[in-house]
Amino acid sequence: MILVDGFFRLLDDLPKPVFKYPLHEIAFHKYAFQGMFKNEFEGAVFSNDQARGPPIITGQVILRVLWQAEMGYSKWVNLARDGSHLSTYVFGNRQG
């Protein structure tokens, strides 16, 4: 499951029929990594001394272009989704 979260393989590089749509959407790693990336990069500004392009790169550009993060919702939505995954796992695996 860690292969489909967007850390080892970006979203556009995944094969679409199985890995991208069902597995990528239910992988809890996806929401954990995207929440962490949004927490670190949103609002940040970096100087671009080595690469071609504009002299300043914003964290939004890094999230959208480099990490291909979904920017339609906040990092708190990612946290809520991870919490629901965790509670489903804990309460769904109770015995007795």
Please give the structural blueprint:
Layout: H1 16-26, H2 28-41, E1 45-47, E2 56-58, H3 59-66, H4 75-92
Antiparallel strand pairs: 1-2
Helix pairs in contact: 2-3, 2-4
Structure description:
Helix content is 53%, strand content 6%. The two termini are 28 Å apart. With 96 residues, it is mostly helical. A two-stranded antiparallel sheet has the order 1-2. The chain contains four helices and two strands; from the N terminus they run H-H-E-E-H-H. Helix 2 runs antiparallel to helix 3 and helix 2 (28-41) packs antiparallel against helix 4 (75-92). The protein has a domain at 28-92. The model has no long low-confidence stretch (mean pLDDT 81). InterPro entries: Plant_ABCG. This is Abc transporter g family member 11. Keywords: Transport. Belongs to the ABC transporter superfamily. ABCG family. Eye pigment precursor importer (TC 3.A.1.204) subfamily.
Q: Can you tell me the residue ranges where pLDDT is under 50 for at least 5 consecutive residues? A: none
Q: Record the strand order, biggest sheet.
A: 1-2
The number of E-state strands comes to 2
Largest sheet: 2 strands, antiparallel
Put simply, the count of helices is 4
Order of helices and strands: HHEEHH
Family: Belongs to the ABC transporter superfamily. ABCG family. Eye pigment precursor importer (TC 3.A.1.204) subfamily.
Keywords: Transport
InterPro entries: Plant_ABCG
Organism: Quercus suber (Cork oak)
